[in-house]
Each structure stands twice: as C-alpha cells, then as structure tokens.
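Bench notes, afternoon.
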Amino acid sequence: MKARITPTQREVRLADDDLIVSKTDSTGRLTYVNRTFMRISNYPEHALLGQQHNLVRHPDMPRGVFRLMWETLKAEREFFGIIKNMTSDGDFYWVFANVTPDHDQGGGVSGYFSVRRSVPLAAVAAASELYTRMLQLERSAGPATAPEASLAWLRRTLTERQTTYERFVLGLYAS
C-alpha cells in the first residue's frame, strides 16, 4: 500500500543531462530503477522494486492523464507526457516522460520501459494550466467517473486546438 506523504512546495529540478529510467511488469510494478531515479525520488532501490510505479505520483496530477497513458500503452503505442511526480519526502519534480511497451519473445507485452528527463519551464506552465482544470473536473465528478470526465474534457480542449495530447506535449518539449 502506498504510504501517505504530505506534499511540500519544494521543487527538485532535474539537470539537463539527468535521465530517469525504470522498467515495470505489465501491471505497472517496478522491476528496475536506475540510480538517477533513486536520487531524484529519494527512495532506496529496495523501497521501489516490486511497488507500483504510481508510488511517485503527485496528487496534483489528474487521473485522466494516467487513464490516457494506459489506453495508449494497452494499444501497444508509446506514450509521451509531462508529469509531476513526488519524492519520498513530499517534494515534487516535473519530467517529460516517454513510456514504451516491452515485448517478450512471443510478441506479447511483458512490461514497460520509461525514460524521463527535464522539461522546459514553459512546458510545465502550459501543462499545469490544463491539469488544474482537469483536477477541478475530477473533484466535481467524484471518484468513480473522475478520470473519464477529465480525459473527455482534455480531448475536447485539444481537438478545439486542433491537436492531440501527444502533439501538444511533444510541441511543448521542443520549444
């Protein structure tokens, strides 16, 4: 079970050359973490391995984004996202995440690789604006339908902007 951590307002900034790498099984349980992941998240390896990757999920992240991520991964496509994570002591860090399915020898998905890197501040500001609205919608929708409600809004909003979430975040990262 995920321990209750109180979020702080302290940010941990990734260096431009920091690469956070992890691997999970098909259910999202961590099977590998690199030293950068441990350093940034402030968890020792033994506290991470075997745990759900959402151990580092920050409560400011809308569940709708993770619903989109899992839909994308279940379709065996890679996912790109701008994600706010939380350290073991409640600090936060923003990442540009790329998650890809890992296929076994038979061609089935055996797990997922994730590589995260620093993200431009302008990208964080743009994503935060959307995420704030998504969180408001999730709170008003209630726990049972929160992810679907915020994801539907996100899709409508991005369609109005004539883009997709993937193009949106890739454009922000490139800027």
